[in-house]
């Protein structure tokens, strides 16, 4: 059995500015750096150690991973966020109501079905080729939400709120399926 910790990156400049951020990128804010350091402190306190680490090719995910662990890591393009097409970098107020379905396809982006298939197959390939007991993957909010959606039917733990920055989704993988065991949300009130 393999344990996977799937982590959203820390707060970015575009998060703070309420801009749509998919394939486009912006740097971590000071708060985002503190969030990642707090997540690392939690992992160390709990004695959670990783055998392998992977990240999206986006700078915000790479920087978060480097704050979470000192392990060498592999960058994988298909761990990137949903591609929002020409909506990238625009204000979040332009987003349609959830679910987005295929809304962004008309603007050169991905459909929900495409991003769900991409992130789910990529993570499954990573874990199936790995010999690690504990793996760390840093990705993005909508990508993680779609991975969760793909495996929701197997999991007793349910997500009830928006995925916060640096939250940890703890999955186990066995018998060809992922099971969500825990969602670890941090109390960032001391660093706001």
Automatic annotation (TrEMBL):
Top-level taxonomy: Bacteria, Bacillati, Bacillota, Bacilli, Lactobacillales
The organism encoding this protein is: Carnobacterium divergens DSM 20623
Q: Which residues bind substrate?
A: 8-15, 60
> Can you say what this protein is called?
Phosphoglycerate mutase
Domain of life of the native organism: Bacteria
GO molecular function terms noted in the UniProt entry: phosphatase activity
Pfam (any one): His_Phos_1
Cite a GO CC annotation: cytoplasm
Quote the SUPFAM superfamilies the UniProt record gives. Phosphoglycerate mutase-like
């Amino acid at each position: 059995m393999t344990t996977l910790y799937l982590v959203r990156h820390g707060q970015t400049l575009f998060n703070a500015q309420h801009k749509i951020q998919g394939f486009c990128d912006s740097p971590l804010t000071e708060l985002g750096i503190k969030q990642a350091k707090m997540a690392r402190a939690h992992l160390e306190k709990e004695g959670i150690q990783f055998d392998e680490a992977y990240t999206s090719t986006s700078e915000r995910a790479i920087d978060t991973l480097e704050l979470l662990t000192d392990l060498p890591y592999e960058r994988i393009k298909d761990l990137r966020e949903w591609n929002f097409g020409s909506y990238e970098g625009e204000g979040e107020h332009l987003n349609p109501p959830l679910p987005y379905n295929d809304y962004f396809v008309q603007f050169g982006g991905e459909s929900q079905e495409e991003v769900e298939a991409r992130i789910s197959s990529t993570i499954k390939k990573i874990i199936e080729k790995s010999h690690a007991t504990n793996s760390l993957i840093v990705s993005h909010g909508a990508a993680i939400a779609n991975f969760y959606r793909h495996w929701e039917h197997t999991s007793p733990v349910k997500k009830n709120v928006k995925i916060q920055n640096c939250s940890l989704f703890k999955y186990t993988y066995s018998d060809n399926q992922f099971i969500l065991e825990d969602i670890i949300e941090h109390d960032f009130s001391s660093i706001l």
